Amino acid sequence: MTVTSPAGADLLGDVRRYGLVLIGAGALGVLAGLLAIAYPDITLLALALIAGINLMLLGIANLIDAFGGERDTTVKVLCAVIGLLGIIAGLVVIRRPGESLLALLVVLGIWLVVTGIVDFVRAFANIENRPLRLFAAVADVVLGALILALPKLSLGTLAVLVGIAFVVRGAVAVMRGIALRRTTTAAPADAPPPAVAA
């Protein structure tokens, strides 16, 4: 007869909820990316609002991961930095949506490159989903570098690049959330919870 630890059950419940947050944020990211790709003639205002809201959602998901998921202190700090950066970038883009295409390029490009580099480093700190996380990290860096390296991008081209980045990042989040929920469902209640990796 196994004795269920209340603390272990609480931790598994938290991990399951985090899996749901990942799935929700990822699904919204995919939707935002598909909208940007489907409507490349989108207005600057609409693209800025889509990008800003998505950046904030991804930032919140990273902050949740920093305070609830990862166990390694270095990885927690990286998650918190990326989370704060995402929220700040989202607020900047939403607050000044019609500022200029150049401002949007800089904010999105820097955010993609920084998060890609951090996610690349984090992929080696955790074995779970490493190939998937490496793919997403490299995609972020490449797309972010393209956005920053081509300052004369048209709005349509920017929308497509941003859309691709959001679809990739969102799909990875959904897959990780599903895998996380499967892992916690299969784990016995008194087992230690699996490591959560964003």
Can you give keywords for this protein?
6 helices, single chain, 198 residues
Task: Bin the strand percentage.
Answer: under 5%
Topology as H/E string?
A: HHHHHH
Shape: globular
* Major pleated sheet: none
CA-based gyration radius: 18 Å
**What is the percent of helical residues?**
over 70%
> Which consecutive residue ranges, at least 5 long each, have pLDDT under 50?
none
Blueprint of the fold:
Elements: H1 6-38, H2 44-68, H3 73-95, H4 101-123, H5 130-149, H6 155-186
Helix pairs in contact: 1-2, 1-6, 2-3, 2-6, 3-4, 4-5, 4-6, 5-6
Please provide a written account of the structure:
The chain has one domain (7-186). The model has no long low-confidence stretch (mean pLDDT 77). It is built from six helices and no strands. It is mainly alpha-helical. The longest helix is centred in the first third of the chain and has 33 residues, at 6-38.
Briefly say what this structure is:
The chain starts with 5 loop residues before the first helix and ends in a 12-residue tail after the last helix. The protein has 6 helices and no strands.
